């Protein structure tokens, strides 16, 4: 959902081939727009505070790109090392994070660990990168806390990694026996809810 709750976005395929992002009006269910500037599997979507929409792609022609659509502007892509599987904006919309994986130098088809990159939305420049050397792991879910000071990633290896601002080493939360596919903070910011 958009931050004002008026628009719903979903990623999928049109005609079984072209990947699209479709926007609906929540109030009346009417189709608002279809965005098809990328031909790749869309794994995650996130709305920014100013109406931007980010999509993480993992397969297809736009392999490993994070695509950002801005209101009234052309889409912009940010390259990722490998598949990008999750995206999240800070609550103020000033930063965008994406989670995915990086490849083993010797086995370039094997994910060697999680990688999370953060870009400043105003400059478009990458401002942070954190990694976790977990064999065959990649991020599947991503969220910021409401203050933007903690970034939480759920991985396919069952781990939840919490990065505090400026800390290169994450706190690791365990308990899932399989991939963590969804994350959210409780309104009081005291707990993280995870699902897999």
Description:
The protein is an all-beta fold and 196 residues long. Helices cover 0% and strands 54% of the residues. It contains no helices and 17 strands. It has strands at residues 7-14, 18-25, 31-35, 40-47, 53-60, 65-69, 76-79, 84-89, 95-103, 111-120, 126-132, 139-144, 150-155, 160-164, 171-173, 182-185, 192-195. The strands form 5 sheets. The chain has a 4-stranded antiparallel beta sheet, with no helix packed on it. A 4-stranded antiparallel beta sheet has the order 8-9-10-11, with no helix packed on it. β2 and β3 (31-35) form a beta hairpin. Mean pLDDT is 81; it is low at 104-111.
Brief account:
The chain is mostly beta strands and 196 residues long. Helices cover 0% and strands 54% of the residues. The chain has no helices and 17 strands.
Jot down its keywords.
single chain, four-stranded antiparallel β-sheet, mainly beta, 196 residues, globular
Major sheet, described briefly?
4 strands, antiparallel
The best one-word shape is globular
Stretches with pLDDT under 50, minimum 5 residues? 104-111
Oligomer: single chain
Q: Kindly, what is the distance between the CA atoms of the first and last residues, rounded to a whole number of angstroms?
A: 21 Å
Structural class: mainly beta
H and E string: EEEEEEEEEEEEEEEEE
- Calculate the mean pLDDT score and round it: 81
Strand content: over 45%
Helix content: under 10%
Q: Give the neighbour order of strands across the main sheet.
A: 4-5-6-7
Question: Mind telling me the C-alpha Rg?
Answer: 16 Å
H/I helix tally? 0
- Total strand segments: 17
């Amino acid at each position: 959902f958009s931050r004002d709750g008026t628009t719903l976005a979903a990623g999928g395929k049109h005609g079984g081939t072209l990947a699209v992002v479709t926007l609906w009006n929540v109030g009346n269910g009417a189709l608002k727009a279809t965005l098809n500037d990328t031909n790749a599997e869309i794994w995650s979507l996130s709305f920014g505070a100013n109406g931007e929409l980010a999509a993480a792609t993992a397969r297809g022609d736009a392999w490993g790109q994070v695509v950002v659509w801005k209101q009234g502007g052309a889409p912009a892509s940010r390259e990722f090392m490998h598949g990008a599987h999750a995206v999240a904006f800070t609550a103020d919309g000033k930063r965008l994070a994406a989670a995915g994986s990086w490849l083993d130098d010797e086995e370039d088809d094997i994910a060697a660990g999680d990688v999370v990159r953060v870009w400043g939305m105003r400059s478009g420049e990458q401002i942070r990168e954190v990694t976790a050397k977990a064999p065959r792991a990649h991020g599947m879910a991503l969220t910021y806390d409401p203050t933007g000071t903690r970034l939480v990633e759920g991985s396919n290896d069952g781990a939840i990694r919490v990065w505090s601002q400026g800390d290169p080493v994450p706190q690791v939360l365990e308990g899932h026996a399989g991939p963590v596919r969804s994350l959210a903070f409780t309104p009081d910011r005291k707990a993280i809810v995870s699902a897999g």
